[in-house]
């Protein structure tokens, strides 16, 4: 490649005097250095095999390449009136051709005026640029090709009138043996990848290049990707980069050699933000609690003042809680808790844990479960096993009757809001501890699919003799009473499209309690559920059997605006004696009662609502189950009726307000 390019330069000047020039030494017109280079060319047609499309004896084709320009008989003639007059010369090798000398005619007359010269490089015949003439008047023509060619054969084509005999004394083509050497591209090296940390915002990259068979003629730096930056020295080996920001930058160094070949190499610069400083992300953020002493509200636990505190109300159950809304997503890595009424008090919480909101439920933070904390240990620092990214943190107090927290510090840094599916226990019943009532929880199978869908809530209560959880609070009973029993069926679990909470009335570990649910505690449980799960507040329902059914009627009468519908089963109370009974008239109610369970108080309630609570029929419907009494035959049949849930989940509070 290099020699061919050199050949072009070397012959440029000779082209000025070549076409149609008279016989003579035009090299004398050229500088001595250029003449020396032209002298390097060899006659590649001399004595090479020659053939012709036609021949007039004795003027054979080989005479046109025998080197004899003085003997008149040493020439090729095709004869007159031959349509095709071609002279082919096999170069017996591959050559880079640069110029030609053509000697024609008889002595000093009868020159060939019109001709063409072709070459074959193995892919077919092609015209040699600048080698043809149409009005030649000279018996000796020296022509430098306007573009060198690489060939292994040469063809002369006479284009004179057919009546003229084409006389070629000699056809000399000059060139050099073709080299198969391929230029080796340069090798670029942009240097090693770099890393830096802000506030450092500039860097110098040092690169270079080598060329094994020549020289590197230029270098050029460009930015390939990354945020914008300011570059200087882009055509030198050293590139100065300024104005860097956090991100990954890629720069490319391109080298060009003296044959025009290029090569590139890339280098990356990784710029990281300075390490984030951990701060107390709970400080003065909104705080709520399961309950609190009026003078000791939850906000005291995040006000930065160790002289104030949150203290829960009096409770017989454990698992009260304090929630902190971080008002954004944070990566939280540790917590510091100041417990008790003072630093020297002996009433610190003995057992507690921290939980993080994951978008659908609360999950225990690894490394934060504390059991057996001494009553005198009023400060506790917890380093999480793994930092958590969350928007809310909960302190769960496993103490009773009071929980006391003077300050909660959560050390973290800002983070991106979590996206994607959640990881709550869905599609099955699980046990949940709660300060109101421990309960069996069911979340629909599709609950985890997204973080935005809100689901209906059903509170299902057992009767005064029933329960849903084991006494030691380790599991849901294998055969719980009421709605919770239906979840032993896989098809029922798949069909249920609501959050279902089945509270257990009795206290843990001793099974104490009469089985009567309290309306205030149930209402608080509903509010807890709205904090703990993605509940659709427009679709909240209560149902219960026997004593639980009585409570559902009570809630419907006294808290109608908070419920979308109720499903009382086998009620034993007499609601018609309650002054608020007419509040039930606009409330969607589907009551069930066994035919053998007398009297049918549900029927009496509907009659009362239809006839004594103003004009029009009530929204109450009653189903009497044949051959069923005050037992499972009634409530299990009712809760197994899938039509019930199709109707129930269509009811909304907003439809009647």
TrEMBL record:
It comes from the Bacteria. InterPro entries: AB_hydrolase_fold, FA58C, Galactose-bd-like_sf, Ig-like_fold, PKD/Chitinase_dom, PKD_dom_sf, Plant_Biomass_Hydrol_Est. The keyword Protease does not apply. Residues 1-20 form the signal peptide. Residues 28-176, 264-413 form the F5/8 type C domain. Pfam families: F5_F8_type_C, K319L-like_PKD. Keywords: Signal. The keyword Thylakoid does not apply. PROSITE patterns: FA58C_3 (PS50022), PROKAR_LIPOPROTEIN (PS51257). This is F5/8 type C domain-containing protein. The lineage of its organism: Bacteria, Pseudomonadati, Myxococcota, Myxococcia, Myxococcales.
């Amino acid at each position: 490649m290099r020699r061919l390019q050199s050949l072009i330069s070397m012959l440029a000047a000779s082209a000025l005097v070549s076409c149609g020039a008279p016989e003579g030494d035009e090299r004398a017109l050229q500088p001595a250095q250029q003449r020396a280079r032209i002298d390097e060319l060899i006659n590649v047609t001399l004595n090479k095999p020659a053939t012709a499309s036609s021949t007039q004896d004795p003027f054979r084709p080989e005479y046109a390449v025998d080197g004899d320009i003085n003997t008149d008989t040493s020439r090729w003639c095709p004869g007159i009136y031959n349509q095709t007059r071609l002279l082919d010369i096999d170069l017996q090798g591959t050559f880079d051709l640069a110029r030609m000398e053509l000697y024609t005619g008889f002595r000093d007359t009868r020159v060939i005026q019109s001709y063409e010269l072709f070459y074959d490089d193995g892919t077919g015949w092609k015209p040699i640029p600048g080698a043809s003439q149409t009005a030649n008047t000279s018996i000796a023509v020296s022509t430098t090709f306007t573009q060198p060619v690489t060939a292994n054969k040469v063809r002369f084509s006479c284009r004179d009138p057919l009546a003229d005999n084409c006389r070629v004394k000699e056809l000399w083509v000059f060139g050099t043996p073709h080299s198969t050497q391929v230029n080796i591209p340069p090798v670029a090296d942009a240097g090693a990848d770099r890393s830096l940390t802000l506030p450092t915002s500039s860097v110098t990259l040092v690169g270079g290049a080598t060329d094994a068979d020549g020289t590197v003629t230029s270098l050029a730096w460009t930015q390939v990707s990354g945020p914008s930056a300011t570059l200087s020295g882009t055509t030198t080996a050293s590139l100065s980069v300024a104005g860097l920001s956090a991100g990954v930058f890629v720069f490319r160094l391109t080298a060009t050699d003296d044959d025009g070949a290029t090569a590139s190499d890339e280098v990356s610069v990784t710029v990281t933000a300075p390490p984030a400083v951990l701060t107390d992300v709970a400080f003065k953020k909104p705080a709520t609690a399961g309950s609190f002493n009026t003078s000791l509200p939850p906000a005291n636990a995040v006000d930065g003042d160790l002289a104030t505190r949150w203290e829960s109300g009096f409770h017989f159950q454990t698992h009260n809680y304090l929630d902190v809304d971080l008002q954004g997503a944070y990566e939280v890595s540790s917590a510091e808790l100041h417990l008790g009424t003072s630093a020297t008090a002996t009433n610190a919480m003995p057992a507690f844990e921290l939980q993080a909101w994951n978008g659908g439920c609360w999950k225990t933070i690894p490394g934060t479960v504390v059991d057996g904390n001494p009553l005198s240990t009023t400060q506790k620092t917890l380093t999480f096993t793994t930092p958590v990214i969350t928007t809310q943190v909960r302190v769960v107090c496993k103490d009773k009757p009071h929980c006391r927290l003077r300050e909660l510090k959560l050390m973290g840094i800002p983070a991106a809001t979590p996206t994607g599916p959640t990881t709550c226990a869905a599609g099955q019943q699980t046990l949940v501890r709660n300060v109101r009532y421990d309960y069996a929880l069911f979340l629909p199978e599709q609950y985890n699919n997204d973080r935005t869908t809100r689901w209906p809530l059903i509170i299902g209560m057992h009767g005064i003799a029933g329960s849903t959880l084991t006494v030691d609070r380790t599991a849901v009973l294998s055969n719980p009473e009421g709605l919770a029993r239906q979840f032993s069926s896989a098809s029922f679990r798949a069909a249920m499209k609501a959050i279902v909470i089945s509270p257990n009335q009795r206290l843990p570990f001793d099974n104490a309690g009469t089985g009567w649910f309290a309306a205030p505690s149930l209402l608080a449980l509903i509010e807890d559920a709205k904090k703990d799960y993605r509940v659709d507040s427009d679709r909240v329902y209560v149902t219960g059997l026997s004593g639980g059914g009585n409570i559902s009627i009570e809630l419907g009468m006294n808290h109608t605006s908070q419920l979308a519908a109720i499903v009382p089963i086998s009620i034993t109370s007499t609601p018609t004696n309650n002054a608020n009974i007419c509040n039930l008239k606009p409330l969607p109610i589907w009551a069930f009662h066994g035919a053998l369970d007398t009297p049918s108080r549900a029927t009496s309630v509907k009659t009362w609502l239809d006839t004594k609570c103003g004009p029009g029929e009530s929204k109450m419907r009653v189903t009497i189950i044949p051959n069923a009494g005050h037992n499972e035959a009634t409530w299990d049949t009712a809760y197994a009726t899938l039509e019930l849930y199709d109707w129930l989940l269509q009811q909304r509070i907003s439809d009647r307000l």
